[in-house]
Each structure stands twice: as C-alpha cells, then as structure tokens.
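Record minuted for everyone:
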Amino acid sequence: MSSRLTLALRLYREGKVSFYSTDLEELAKMGLPYTKAPIFYNPRMKLNRDVTISIFSSLSLKSAADLMAASGVRALRLKAEGGAEEVFACDSNCLSAQIIKMNVKLNKLSGIRVKCSDARLEAERMAWENERVDYLDLDPFGSPAPFLDSFLRAVKRGGIIGITATDEPPLFGIYPDKLLRYYGVWGKKLPFCKEFGIRSLISFTIRTAARLDLAAEPLLSYGEGHYVRAYFRIERGAERSKHLLKELGWVLYKEGDFEIIRGIDEMPRGAMGPIWVGKIVEPEFLGKLSPLNEEVGKLFEKLKEEADGPPFYQRLDIICSKLNMRIPKPKIVIESLREMGHFAARSHLDPLGIKTTAKREEIEDLIRKLTSS
C-alpha cells in the first residue's frame, strides 16, 4: 500500500530568486504559526539575509554553506546575488532538502550542493575533510550555543561566520539562569538589555573559539525585530584569542547608572558578565561594505553613527520618568551633548536610547535645561 503526502506550497520571491516553501497563509488559516511550517521560511528575516548578501558580495568571498537551509532561500541568494562560486545547502529535514533541489532547478543555478544531514555532523565533517568555507551561516531556531563548537571548526582561516540568536529572553537577562547555562554569562534584565544580549553573544563566541585555539574577531553586530545577529572573522592561534579575551569585562548597574569594568581576572561584587566591552561594529569593516538595498543602507548608517561610542546607552524615557519631566526630542539631546564636547549618537536598538560619554548627572542637568526653556 502506497502513501502520499500532500504539501501546500507557495511560490515566493525574495531578492533575485524565486522559491517554493510552505504556504504561510494556508498555515495561518489552520491556526498554526510559521514555526510549524513543514518547510520553514520566515519572511521577517529578509533584512537578516540582505545583510548577509551585502557582506558576502562586498568581500568577494567564494564559498559558503548554510547547514540549516530550510527552503534554501539564503543559499540561493548567496549564489544568485552574492556571487558565490560554491554553496553547500544542508538541512536535517529531508523534505526540505528535496524542496531546495527543486528551487535550485527553478532558478537555473549551478554550483549548489544539497544534502539531507544533521548540521553539527556536517560541520564536523567539513572540518575533518578540510572542506571549510569562506562564509558559514548559523541561524537556528532559538540559541546558537549547542552548534557553535562544530560550526567554528568549519570556517576557513580568515573566513566569516554569521550567527543569529532568537532566544532573546535568556540573552536579555529575563531568564538569568538560562543565560548562565547557555552562554556562561551572569546577568539580569537591564534598561539596555538588547545591547547586553549582543555583548553576551559576542563574549560567548569569543570564549568558545578560544577553547578551540581559534580567534573570533567581532566585525559587525546588530539587533532587529526578534533576533540579534553578529558576524566574526575566524583566525587560528591562541595568541590572537588572548588579545580578544582582554576585551571582555563586566558591567555594574546601580540606581539607573552603569559602570564598565575591563578585564575578567576578577569578578567585582554585584557585576554582570563576562561580556564583550569592545566595539560591536568595526568602522573599518563597515566602510568596506556596499549595502544591497536602501533598507540595509539605513541600518549601516545607524551603525556607523554609533560605532565609536561607548558600551551601552541611556534611555531618555527612564531618565525623564525619574525627573518627572517630558521627554525632549532625542535629536536635540544628541546635538546638545555634542556641543558639550561629548560623543553622542542614537542607539539603533532603542529609539530613545542615547550612546554617550556624558555622565548620567550631566544628562539629567541637560534635560532639566531643555525642558525648562
């Protein structure tokens, strides 16, 4: 007796490629979320993929792998738009692997190898058989922590790994115990929790790489929607990793203000970390990138503006609530702080977040002047 599977597919268009994936509208009619799709595709992650293509094409990289390829849209775009010579698309769902093959033929692309296998197993195999790639994508559903060891080994020397984390509650300190278990970071929810999450992810990646005698140099990190994303250049050698470990530290938060403590030799009482206290965006690296489209260009401009700022940001809504004053326009606050000789820029993570070298007391005094005039 033969059995037949009926699958509702829909033809989508993203970037320069067309592809079949689960019909999300039909799924919604059944009362099911997109996470239950037999062939996974999340349209809200388009910017995530756009940034990947921008980086890959700007650096003229040659080989790439997506070991959690799902519908294959990122792999297809790396080939069609990124200019990759070789792409490896893998998924543990064999049905997804068949759909990817169909999508490769649909777009008349060559140089894309498709396989049904476990992501960690394939990453370990790539390292063992010296099939490492210039670019490797790690974009799981939830935390990247269980996959990171294997994936780091599969990147060529000088290659790039892009890491997505969608488990925001632990990373943002909402679930401190899980943050500690998954990332080896102690913390709680703070007003600047989104940036704390990014710096925790960077710290975890650097420490994991160091254990493998690898150096994971942070190049560009950002948060958008329901995820945080970080790109690293992978080099080999314990000495390189030691240099990066020196850029880890702690944050002390008390009465609405915070203090950054560099170095992890000792953990100060009440401190949270260890987190990355260096730059989350390297201006030199950002300057090499050509944005794929207007949306990516706007993100890059925001990142460029805040790139040289100190760790974390002050939230105007929290300060004004304490002062019982109306919130002034962030643009005016930033301009005023710059006139005072401070670095000041809006954080891309919070519309009311200001990254600045000014002390909390100076910001409060400034707000009093601005709201009284």
Residues 213 and 223 are 28 Å apart (CA to CA). The first helix runs from residue 24 to 29. The mean pLDDT is 94. The domain at 9-305 is CATH 3.40.50.150 (Rossmann fold).
